[in-house]
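User: I'm putting together a teaching handout on how sequence relates to shape, and I'd like one worked example. Could you take Glycolipid transfer protein domain-containing protein from Thyridium curvatum, show the sequence you're using, and then write out its predicted structure as tokens right after it?

Assistant: Happy to. First the sequence, then the structure tokens directly below it.
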Amino acid sequence: MAAAIPPGGTLLDTFKKSFVDVPIDAEKDNAISTAEFLEAAESLTTMFDVLGSVAFSPVKSDMLGNVKKLRDRFLAAPLESETIQSLCLNELKTKKHTATEGLLWLTRGLEFTCLALSQNVSKPTEELSDSFRSAYGVTLKPHHGFLIKPVFSAAMSACPYRKDFYSKLGSDQEKVAAELRTYTAALDKIVAILKGFLERKEAKW
């Protein structure tokens, strides 16, 4: 479950790591630091606890399962896996792609969440279910089979009312909105880097 929010703070203050704090080495082809990235991805999944519906459990467990695939590879070959990109490229050299495929699905899940939250923050009158449904349509839905789509559709319909969700993120609504904007902007940048990386020939299996 999500941790208790400190007085005057927001839910983002309870995250072990924020995407804002994930090191990206611009001089090394935007290499993303593995340890911090995985912690930030894990922290993000507590957002689904705040969404409050068991319908979001599959979304959360799917993302955590993909984080685990990457972490298992990181722990198995730490020196070759200091950045997400090197982790995947070195794994592919072994003719395996468990972690790399995990990254592909994790990136899709992160893009879905990022798009839904950033759209919702930018449209103060839009309900969460509409933002999440619209984000799902352009991120995960095209890759999901007919068995998975109803599970995610149920989650979209089970979103809490906007006012109830934001009140759980913190008491100062202006601060909540400002921090969410900063957070989703940082996540959006990371998603764009990862999508570009996964499109490359050397990242295919």
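A couple of points you could highlight for students: The chain has one domain: 23-203. The chain has nine helices and two strands.
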